[in-house]
């Protein structure tokens, strides 16, 4: 898109014609991560002052979707996948395979640009960690989290998510 704008310019600052022209001229890639994994990552990085995962989750639920941090806000409300037709949706845990495909499609040398990923190990670790942390939550918290992330769980194929069960 040819219009000059600062990197901080938000899409909402353009009119509809400009937005359509911009979105039509870019390859749009969306990186997604299962909601429970996003919460665990935020908790482990010390976001918030909660002493336990359960109390951290309660703080998130109490804050509501409108006041939620970008770190754990539902992806559907951040990325608008129903409005923006993304060319690629890349799932956390499959980065090496999917980024290799993206680089190849872009005509870039895959081997020299692709960092080493240990996707299998990351998937196993987060699967184990999710089960451990999920077991700390009350039934009510589990149900509330499933409701909090209901649109993400519908929009993306998080088939192994503990929140869908």
Show the helix and strand layout.
Blueprint: H1 16-25, E1 29-32, H2 35-44, H3 53-63, H4 75-79, E2 88-91, H5 95-105, H6 110-113, H7 119-134, H8 139-148, H9 150-155
Parallel strand pairs: 1-2
At a glance:
It is found in: Golgi apparatus membrane. The chain is mostly helical.
Helix-and-strand structural type: mainly alpha
Q: Over all CA atoms, what is the radius of gyration?
A: 18 Å
Q: Given the C-alpha coordinates, what overall shape results?
A: globular
Quick check: average pLDDT?
Answer: 83
How many beta-strand runs? 2
Helical coverage, percent range:
40-55%
Whole-Å distance between the termini? 43 Å
Across the major sheet, the strand order is 1-2
- What is the H/E string? HEHHHEHHHHH
Largest beta-sheet details:
2 strands, parallel
Domain module tally: 1
- Strand content range: under 5%
Can you tell me the residue ranges where pLDDT is under 50 for at least 5 consecutive residues? none
Question: Counting H and I runs of at least 4 residues, what is the number of helices?
Answer: 9
EC number: 2.8.2.-
Subcellular location: Golgi apparatus membrane
Protein name: Carbohydrate sulfotransferase
Family: Belongs to the sulfotransferase 2 family.
């Amino acid at each position: 898109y040819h219009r000059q704008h600062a990197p901080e310019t938000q899409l909402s600052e353009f009119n509809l014609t400009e937005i359509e022209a911009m979105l039509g001229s870019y390859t749009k890639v969306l990186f997604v991560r299962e909601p429970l994994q996003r919460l665990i990552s935020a908790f482990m990085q010390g976001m918030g002052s909660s002493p336990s995962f359960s109390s951290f989750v309660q703080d998130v639920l109490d804050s509501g979707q409108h006041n939620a941090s970008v770190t754990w806000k539902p992806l559907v409300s951040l990325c608008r996948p129903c409005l923006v037709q993304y060319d690629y949706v890349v799932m956390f845990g499959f980065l090496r395979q999917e980024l290799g495909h993206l680089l190849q499609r872009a005509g870039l040398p895959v081997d020299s640009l692709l960092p080493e990923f240990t996707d299998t190990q990351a998937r196993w670790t987060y699967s184990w960690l999710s089960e451990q942390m999920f077991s700390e939550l009350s039934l009510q918290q589990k149900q509330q989290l499933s409701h909090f992330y209901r649109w993400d769980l519908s929009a993306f194929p998080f088939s192994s998510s503990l929140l869908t069960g």
